[in-house]
C-alpha cells in the first residue's frame, strides 16, 4: 500500500455554499505547520506548503491563534513558494476572552486589516469568528459580525463565517442570515454524526457552506495505534472516544480496511458538507490523507459498520 500522492492527485472539490469557492474536500489546517503538535523548521514548513498546492490541497485555513503558522504562511507567499492567485485562504478573528473590546466591529476590522498586511494580501477568501466566549457580543449591533460584513462590503473578504462547536449558535446565525459559511467540529465522524443533522439541514436551506473539523477526531481515526494518536493529538479526557476508536481500529484491521480511508470517506458521503480540514504535519501524512480519500473500499462496508457499531440495518 502506497500513500504517496502524485502532483494534482485528483482530490475532489466541492462548492462551499454561497461563497462560490470550489474547495478541496480536505483543506490544510495551518496547525499543520504551527509547532503546536510537533516542532518543525521553516524549511520543512515551506516544503509542506508547496507540496499541498502541488497535489491539489490549495485551501489553507489559517488563524493567528495557531502558533507560528501565520508567519510561515506569510513567508511562503512572500518568497514565492506559493502564489496568492493559486490558493484559497480563509482566516479567523480570534475571540478568546470576555473583554468587550474583543467583540467590537472596530477591533474586528483592525485585526483583519493587520492580518492582511502581515500576509501581504489584499483580501481573504473568507474570515470566520474563532471560538468566541461571548456569542451574544459577536451578534450584537456593532459586534464582530457587523465588523466582518463591513469588511466584506469593502472587498477585503469574500465570505463571513463562524468557527465554533456549539450547534445552537450556528443555527441562530443561519436563521438570522448572518453567515455565508461555518466550521463546526466534534459532531460528524465515525464516533458520532446524528447530532449534526439539524445544522446540516438549516445550512443547506440557506446555502451556507459547511466545513467539518475533527473528521478524524484529532488523529484517533488515522489508523495508527490509538494510544499514541491520543497523546499526540492532546485529546485529554476522552476515555469513551479512545475506547471506541480502538474497537474501530481492530474491526477495520480484521476486514483489511484502513481506518483512515473509512473515516474520511464516511464523512465525504455527506454531500451537505463541503470540506473537512485536516492538519497533516508531514508530507507523508498529507499524501496518506489524499490516498485515503481516493482508496476503493469494499461494497457495503459502511452499512456493515453501522450494523456493528450502531445496530442499524
Quick recap:
The protein is 41% helix and 12% strand.
As for the CATH topology, it is TIM Barrel
Low-confidence stretches: none
Q: What is the CATH class designation?
A: Alpha Beta
Number of alpha- plus pi-helical segments: 12
CATH architecture: Alpha-Beta Barrel
- Could you say which overall geometry the principal axes of the C-alpha atoms support? globular
Q: Give the count of structural domains.
A: 1
In spatial order, strands of the major sheet run 3-4-5-6-7-8-9
SSE order in H/E notation? EEEHEHEHEHHEHEHEHHHHH
Report, as a whole number of angstroms, the end-to-end distance: 31 Å
Cα gyration radius (Å): 19 Å
**Average pLDDT for all residues:** 94
How would you name the CATH homologous superfamily? Answer: NADP-dependent oxidoreductase domain
Strand tally: 9
Structural class: alpha/beta
Estimated share of beta-strand residues = 5-15%
Largest sheet: 7 strands, parallel
Q: How much helicity do the residues have? A: 40-55%
